[in-house]
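Dear support,

I submitted the protein below through the web form. The confirmation email said the job was done, but the results page showed an empty box. After a refresh the structure appeared. I'm attaching both so you can tell me whether what I see now is the final result or a partial one.
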Amino acid sequence: MKSAKIFFGSDEVAKEHTSDRVSPYSGEVVSTAPICTKHDAQKALKIAKEACVEAKKSTLSQRCNWLLDVASKLREQKEDIAQTITDEVAKPITFARIEVERCIETVTLSAETMRTMHGETINTDAMPSGKKTMAFFTREPVGVVVAITPFNFPLNLVAHKLAPALVAGNTVVLKPTPEAPLTAYKFAKLFIESEYAVKDALSVVYGDAEVGSALITSDIPRAISFTGSVPVGDIVTKSAGIKKIGLELGGNAATFISDSADLDLAATRCALGAFVNSGQVCISLQRIYVDASVYDEFATKMANESKKLVVGSPYDDDTFMGPLIDAESCERAMSWVQSAIDEGARALLEPKIDGRIFYPCVMADVRDDMAIVCEEVFAPIVSLVKVNGFDDALPRMNNSPYGLQFSVFTNDLDLTKRAISELNAGGIVINDMPTLRFDIQPYGGVKLSGVGREGPKYAIEEFTEIKSVVIC
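What the results page shows now:
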């Protein structure tokens, strides 16, 4: 199975005109997808709207069994789905398998969470102006949800939208990344072919701006969940109209290495956080602020740890890092590095490109005014900045238009408490990389990093409306 197809609700449809997906590693065609139009998007939305009635009537038991059935089938097809991820986006196969495992957890957790989601009773006589009544609120599905997903986690980020939305009783129109249509198609097929499926609750269309715009600007969806770049997120916000909008956008993750930190641990974890998935992660570690007293020692350890990482074919089990998503990304990454060198920074590891593989790059003597630390690089590049303690690092870490996740390496309890309180980000990690994420947690950022939170419980809240009831 190499050809993705449209799902207009439960109907699988092929189109004459298709586009090829070429492997970032081999350059070979690995999948094809239909070329969709705005009319396809509108048709999918209409089907989703009509299916809302039955979706809302479906029982929670059916919907939970639906998700658990998908998780079971996904486990059976784990290797095939992992290979598809590697084919389409060149994620190293070991990490592709991990993504499938995480997806199974996300789907399962969504079902388990929804079983215990409930409303609350309200004491209306708590204030003198009230009176004793029976009052409570319930949660109801919002209706139609539009889900738009990126290439870097082409399976699990789809799961973070589909599973909470569907288990809450909504219908969904999914537009997956053009870079991984087959991954999304195979995953969606598990939902649609399940014996517990709610008829026509899920549709899948493919494409870029035309299809995305048709989905976002339509009056049919009540909620939009988008993961992608800040510029596109800005367009979504301005174009959507009055809807519930969840945005998971860019990041510029930073960490602080204090003089009390375990430097071996910090270097090992920072190398992983900076270079996993070739740095193509919203919470990829990009800025490391190091106390001056341990700067040179940490820089040496960081460079040595980065050298150990196995770079090469994404199909080899031992490979840690494969290619970037496209040649343009390699060119952009090299321009970031060269710009920093021209401004006085040093490359502790020689900048190197082999095909579309951009080797791990550790930059030292970086200043705050260099573009390499001001913008999101989305590549395997990390910058070391020397600081005089946390008081010096704090404003520098916060001085970013992004605020997704930060971390601190320290054995100082007072510093830990300060970091949790004063760092301005959606997530704070102590003694590990800011790239650490557990799917059960609330995940999202502040400032330009986004609006709303993912994680099954928190996504379900986004995909439901509160209905207040009073019985006098």
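Response: this is the final, complete result; the empty box was a page-load delay. The radius of gyration is 23 Å.
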